[in-house]
Design brief:
Radius of gyration: 24 Å
Number of strands: 8
Largest sheet: 6 strands, mixed
Order of helices and strands: HHHHHHHEEEHEHEHHEHEHEH
Distance between the termini: 40 Å
Shape: globular
Strand content: 5-15%
Helix content: 40-55%
Structural class: alpha/beta
Length: 354
């Protein structure tokens, strides 16, 4: 495995280096002018290069590199993981994003290569799925199977599904001309219409009060509401509940998870199969310890299955949401539009219909 990772590292660095080099090239006419411009600042470029080399060979400590695919999957998603490399301004953006990396076009040392590779991973690490998420997905897909020894994934007398929905201001952003909040509501409505009649469903929202301004942070970070108590589906009441809120303020994920524990307190895991879906389009912004809150909910006598959906979320948000899912042995999925969100909920529909 270690040998595989060395090969992977060499290929990774070589490919990106070639890409960066190619990004610097232009047609010959343009190149001539650029050479003249560069000559004027040759001394400045030399100083920068020497500074970079000194940084690597000097006091900078190179962090341990991943030696297995599992360690690679555990790394945070990079800021530029989804950088557009085919757009009109892609070359300029690429050069700007990686301009501070050391020059390894000559005969770099092992330390320089390790540093270069480590910095690349920090910036372009993909949403790589490790074995844990795959295992959790397989467990979830075997929900209700008599061969499943984990009681959490066995069907009990009752099935309860609660959605914890992000109603922060960023959910007002549009994808394909449609507000993310509207897409989330329509997807959930489509889901509950296909639930078994004896199943119960609930919706809790968070961040739906105040605004995203600092003056409203306290109000917004204390806002979470069970707008549809866990009960059998009633179309009119459910639609009315969805109409009660719109995208508004901050993102108190930790608060919502703690309140969800109270919502499910009367549905113990011995007699109920409890499924929690957390849907968010960003990181917790209220410093209310969402990972600890998720662990508390997971380890309670409710014994819920907790899955997390990142809806059009950036790398920072993905990293935290993945951590919440990992802390509760749940599944994390990233969706970028309404169709992908509905596809994830369809999988749950297929399982519950069994």
């Amino acid at each position: 495995m270690c040998s595989d990772m060395k090969i992977f590292k060499s290929i990774f660095v070589s490919v990106l280096l070639l890409f960066l080099l190619s990004a610097c090239s232009n047609d010959s006419a343009k190149e001539s002018k650029e050479i003249e411009d560069k000559s004027a600042s040759e001394n400045e470029q030399t100083v920068k290069k020497e500074k970079k080399e000194k940084t690597v060979n000097g006091s900078v400590k190179v962090e341990p590199l991943p030696t297995t695919y599992q360690e690679l999957a555990e790394l945070p998603i990079g800021k530029y993981y989804n950088m557009d490399i085919s757009g009109e301004n892609s070359k300029e953006e690429i050069l700007k994003a990686f301009s501070d990396l050391p020059d390894i076009s000559g005969n770099p040392s092992e330390k320089e290569l390790d540093y270069f590779y480590s910095e690349l991973l920090k910036r372009v690490q993909q949403d790589y799925e490790g074995p844990e998420n795959l295992i959790n997905r397989l467990k979830f897909e075997s929900l209700g199977s008599p061969e499943n020894s984990d009681s959490r994934y066995q069907f009990k007398d009752n099935l309860n599904v609660i959605f914890i929905i992000d109603a922060s201001g960023s959910m007002a952003q549009k994808i394909d001309g449609k507000e993310k909040m509207t897409s989330a509501k329509d997807s959930i409505l489509n889901f509950v219409n296909k639930l078994p009649k004896d199943a119960k469903v609930g919706i809790r929202v968070y961040g739906h009060k105040g605004t995203g301004s600092d003056s409203d942070k306290a109000l917004s970070c204390s806002s979470s509401e069970l707008i549809y108590p866990i009960s059998n589906y009633n179309e009119g009441e459910f639609q009315a509940a969805l109409n009660k809120f719109s995208p508004s303020g901050w993102t108190p994920i930790g608060l919502a998870l703690r309140e969800a524990k109270n919502d499910l307190s009367s549905f113990d895991g011995a007699n109920n199969t409890n499924i929690v879906y957390l849907v968010s389009d960003g990181i917790d912004t209220c410093d209310d310890q969402p990972i600890e809150a998720a662990k508390e909910l997971y380890s309670s006598n409710i014994t819920p299955i907790i899955n997390v959906i990142g809806f059009d979320v950036d790398s920072k948000g993905q990293n935290q949401l993945k951590e919440i899912a990992a802390a509760t042995d749940g599944i994390y999925e990233t969706v970028t539009n309404e169709g992908e969100l509905q596809e994830q909920l369809k999988k749950l529909n297929d399982l519950t219909s069994q």
